[in-house]
Amino acid sequence: MSMADSPRRQSSLWRTVKAIAWAFVGLRARGDYEEDIKKLNPLHIIGIGLVAIFVFVAILVLLVNWAVAH
After folding, report:
1. DSSP letters of 8-40?
2. pLDDT value, residue 60
3. Max intra-chain CA distance, the chain
4. What average pLDDT does the chain have?
């Protein structure tokens, strides 16, 4: 991997994170969605999506434990 590839991969990964975050909220413009389909790596989407789900569930569990304890 050369140094020239690093910024592109980073921006692609960041773009994937933003797309997943918007998907969780449920707000996404159709044009942005179509552009994401063309540019994003499906493996990145799956990986980041799974991580996001686990983080979301962990936050919910912590909130419930905190609410029950107080």
Report:
1. HHHHHHHHHHHHHHHHHHT---HHHHHHHHHHS
2. 97
3. 52
4. 84
Rg of the Cα atoms in the chain: 16
CA distance 16 to 46: 10
Q: Using the predicted structure, report yes or no on whether residue 29 has a pLDDT greater than 90.
A: no
CA 68/CA 62 separation, integer angstroms: 10
62, two tokens: 């912590």
* Distance (Å, whole) CA 20 – CA 62: 22
8 Å CB contact between 11 and 39:
no
